[in-house]
Write a structure and sequence with these properties.
By secondary structure, the chain is α+β, with helices and mostly antiparallel strands. The protein has 7 helices and 23 strands.
């Protein structure tokens, strides 16, 4: 219990100071972001090596006969972004355990494990062209990583380039092309004339550009649109699958997604709530993973913590009945997915029961409604007309606490201590003292 209390106090302090920590981390990253490994300051169009640009990378998922791959770009030490549609195609039954990300090298280089992922709220209801966040596991090799910079506030002789990775991830070759801006109306007209104006493929925030030389081509998702200014590279957008090269290409404008990326990291440790339907709500809470929304994926529901089914019988009545249940999330559990669901016995019922999730508030506002606490009390409210079944399914794992004394003793046995030189003591034969 003593260890649990210390653990809770420390984590509450860490979550409360998260904004300050992120600002310090951001300042350190800005000092080195966007600096490439090229020995010369001139950028030539054509082919280059991915090792020159340490923020470019690939997410791959090994299958029995092939690898599924998609391009990603590193925007902070542990966060990469890519096209949501490509990431969504990767099997989710073991996505976190089998997927790997390589940064600044081809797929033959050292790989990083995936801690978690998240799709932008626009995907897929509003558009199929949105960004996905990939959170990387902390690894010692990240010390040398340099993410790409955020877009500058002002342009000064900036040059725009597209960076396209090879379809074969074991090849280090990338293609650089100098790009020119294309206004939205011209871009929209091109896609209308070519009959490629599919509404679901247009990003909500779009930048169009085309190569200044060469012919038209077709790009995969994930081509990076970057600008170079004062010998630093900044991310402008991430490409959508479709026409490219000399044809107007569409890019998801990164500057519009930055608040979402930042908040997904700053709000680690706070619960997320998704309403799937009137009768189903999903909640998640992790102390170390980025926020996620939407339905549970197969990997999130592999480890069951708790399940409960409650039946409430009532004769059909035009008047709605009400029932409520309490629910608490605790500090010593990682909740990968919690499903609250209610349904009628009678599957022919015309009106589904409705479920609501509320936070118990016993303190004055705004403290009452904060979500940064480690233990949070909720109550579930249900409205129904006929007999129902209420079901709650909790998935995740219990946090294992570290015994400090035993851990210290173990690491001391593994530590290499410097050798103690042997000194031969002389023998006094003179009888003097």
């Amino acid at each position: 219990m003593k260890n649990l209390i210390i653990f809770c106090v420390v984590l509450e302090k860490l979550i409360a100071d998260n904004t300050q920590t992120q600002n310090l981390t951001s300042n350190r990253q800005q000092a080195t972001c966007g600096i490439d490994n090229s020995p010369i300051s001139v950028v030539y169009e054509g082919y280059a090596k991915i090792e020159t640009y340490p923020w470019l990378g690939t997410l791959y998922y090994p299958m029995s006969d092939k690898w599924m791959t998609t391009s990603v770009v590193l925007v902070s030490k542990q966060i990469a972004i890519g096209a949501a549609l490509d990431v969504d195609k990767v099997p989710k039954i073991d996505f976190r355990s089998k997927s790997r990300v390589v940064i600044g090298t081809n797929c033959s280089g050292p790989a990083l494990r995936v801690k978690d992922y998240s799709f932008h709220p626009d995907y897929p209801k509003t558009t199929l062209s949105a960004l996905a966040l990939i959170q990387l596991e902390n690894d010692p090799q990240m010390i040398g990583f340099r993410p790409i910079c955020a877009p500058p506030t002002a342009l000064n002789n900036a040059q725009f380039y597209s960076m396209t990775l090879s379809n074969e991830c074991h090849i280090s070759t990338i293609r650089l092309q100098k790009m020119a801006y294309v206004d939205y109306q011209t871009c929209k007209e091109f896609y209308r004339q070519t009959e490629l104006d599919i509404e679901s493929m247009w990003p909500p925030y779009v930048v169009c550009a085309r190569a200044m030389l060469g012919k038209s081509c077709v790009w995969r998702s994930g081509t990076v649109l970057a600008l170079r200014q004062n010998n630093r590279w900044s991310l402008v957008g991430v490409g959508v699958a479709g026409p490219g090269c000399n044809a107007p290409a569409r890019f998801m404008e990164y500057n519009q997604y930055r608040p979402w990326v930042r908040n997904s990291v700053l709000r680690i440790g706070r619960p997320t709530v998704t309403r799937i339907a009137d009768n189903q709500i999903i909640m998640r809470r992790s102390l170390a993973r980025i926020q996620r929304y939407g339905p549970c994926d197969p990997e999130e529901i592999k480890s069951e913590l708790y399940t409960d089914h409650t039946k409430i019988e009532h004769f059909p009545n035009p008047k709605k009945h009400r029932a409520s249940y309490n629910f608490t999330i605790f500090a010593n559990f990682e909740y990968s997915c919690i499903v609250f669901q209610v349904f009628h016995y009678n599957k022919w019922a015309t009106e589904k029961p409705k479920i609501y999730l509320h936070k118990w508030c016993l303190s004055p506002k705004p403290l009452c409604y904060g979500m940064h606490f480690l233990q949070i009390d909720f109550y579930v409210e249900i409205f129904f007309k006929e007999s129902i079944t209420y079901r709650v399914m909790v998935y995740g794992q219990e946090i294992k606490f570290l015994d400090i004394k035993r851990a210290t003793a173990y690491f001391n046995t593994k530590r290499k201590y410097p050798g103690v030189p042997f000194v031969r003591m002389g023998i006094n034969t003179t009888g003097r003292r």
